[in-house]
Amino acid sequence: MTTELAVLILAAGKGKRMRNPNMAKVMYEVGGKPMVEHVVDLALKLEPRRTFVIVGWQKDSVIQHLRNTHKLVEFVEQGEQLGTGHAVMQTEEHLKEFSGDVLVLSGDVPLLTESTASALVGYHRTSSAVATILTATLRDPTGYGRIVRNKDGSVKKIVEDKDATNKEKDIKEINTGIYVFQTKELFQGLQQLKPSNAQGEYYLTDVFEFFWSNKLRVSAVKALDAFEVMGINDFEQLQRAQKVLALRG
């Protein structure tokens, strides 16, 4: 029996470093259309059972645009932007009867390809893991969480840059923020989250601590092209994405 897939697209953020403070970050265009539309296009190619776009800041512009272009998309509002974990929590009620896998995508990562997303989901389903992380290798991984693996290739921990030892800082494999989860374990982990940080936010990455503390396997698969997983947080990165898309033709 084929495992069903639900896709969650995180699209609630403000984009404080972009040029227009009144525009939702995911509505900035790459290749002639908003970056979130690229992500929705990708999601629907995977033929998910359900596709949710989690909206917040300037939600009306995102909803109106996508309703005109993608009739199968559902919207969930994150009233307060309290982190990525909090965003995913907003979908729990909608997925309480769903028992498949949940793919979490970022609305500001518009260059991810269908082949890489399919490889991530496929590897997850063959690895006996409760969660699988999409990773990438960067020449300069400064600022990114590092992936520390066990001898069998599974993920031992994610170390944030500010917490990494000198040896861990030498690791070039980074967490991209794109994941696949088993639904039940995902929401069990989310229920354990506490906003124990200065920002008072719930981080999705913290669910992995719940998995590891319960001896649940976390796997990872590496994107072949690091440009695919480039997030867009400022205008310079937006211009770079435009160039990459143009080179793809």
List the helices and strands and how they pair.
Layout: E1 5-11, E2 29-30, E3 33-34, H1 35-45, E4 50-55, H2 59-69, E5 73-77, H3 84-89, E6 101-106, H4 114-126, E7 131-137, E8 146-149, E9 155-159, H5 166-169, E10 173-182, H6 183-191, H7 207-213, E11 218-222, H8 235-248
Parallel strand pairs: 1-4, 1-6, 4-5, 7-11
Antiparallel strand pairs: 2-3, 6-10, 7-10, 8-9
Helix pairs in contact: 6-7
Q: Stretches where pLDDT falls below 50 for ≥5 residues?
A: none
Principal-axis shape equals: globular
SS element count, helices: 8
Structural class: alpha/beta
Percent of residues in β-strands: 15-25%
Percent range of helical residues: 25-40%
| Structural Rg | 17 Å
Mean pLDDT value: 93
Element order: H for helix, E for strand: EEEHEHEHEHEEEHEHHEH
- What can be said about the biggest beta sheet? 7 strands, mixed
Order of neighbouring strands in the sheet with most strands: 5-4-1-6-10-7-11
Measured between the Cα atoms of the first and last residue, the distance is 38 Å
Got a strand count?
11
Commentary on this structure:
- The protein is α/β, with parallel strands linked by helices and 249 residues long.
- The chain has helices at residues 35-45, 59-69, 84-89, 114-126, 166-169, 183-191, 207-213, 235-248, and strands at residues 5-11, 29-30, 33-34, 50-55, 73-77, 101-106, 131-137, 146-149, 155-159, 173-182, 218-222.
- Strands 5-4-1-6-10-7-11 form a seven-stranded mixed β-sheet. A two-stranded antiparallel ribbon has the order 2-3.
- A hairpin with a 2-residue loop joins strand 2 and strand 3.
- Helix 6 packs across helix 7 (207-213).
- The longest helix is centred in the C-terminal third of the chain and has 14 residues, at 235-248.
- The model has no long low-confidence stretch (mean pLDDT 93).
